[in-house]
Amino acid sequence: MADLDVTPVALRTGVKDIAFTGNVSLSGNNLLFAALEDGRIIVSPIQGVPENLKPPLTPVGAIALAGGAAHVLALRADGSVLAWGVDFSGQTDVHAAAQSDVIAIAAGLVQSLALRRDGSVVAWGSNGSGESDVPTAARSGVVAIAAGWQHSVALKSNGTVVT
Description:
With 163 residues, the protein is mostly beta strands. The protein has one helix and twelve strands, in the order βαβββββββββββ. The chain has one domain (9-162): Methylamine Dehydrogenase, Chain H, CATH 2.130.10. The protein has a three-stranded antiparallel sheet, with no helix packed on it. A three-stranded antiparallel sheet has the order 4-5-6, with no helix packed on it. The longest helix has 4 residues, at 24-27. The chain is globular.
C-alpha cells in the first residue's frame, strides 16, 4: 500500500493542476490539492485532513481538479470523473453521463458539473437553488463551466452566458 505523500504542494515540481476546498465549517480545513504529472493527487497541509477528504493514494491519471466547499473532483485523462469528500447532497456520486467524454469540471458549494466533449453539461448534487438544473440553453454548444456557492454557469460558443 502506498504511503500518503507529505511533501508540501508549494515545494513540488510537475504539478498539472490545483484545487482548493475552502469551507472550514464543512470540512474543518482549508486544503490545497494538486494533480501531479505522474497521475497522483496530493493534499496540503497534510495534518488534520479528514479521512473522507484524503485523495486516492494510487495514481488516477488526473489532468484537472476542481474544489467545492468540502469535496473535490478530478478529471482523468480517459475523460471520466472521480469525486471524493463530504457528500451532503450527492455531489460526490458522479453522474453516469460524467463517466466518459468529459473535457472540463467545476465544483460549487455542494454541486458538481462536467462539460462533455459534445458541448453538453451534466450536473449533480444539491439543487436547493437550481444549481444542478441544466437549462435547455446549456444542453449544447457550451465551451466552459463554472460553479459557485449556490449557482452554476455555462459559457456558450456564441459568447452568451447561461445561468
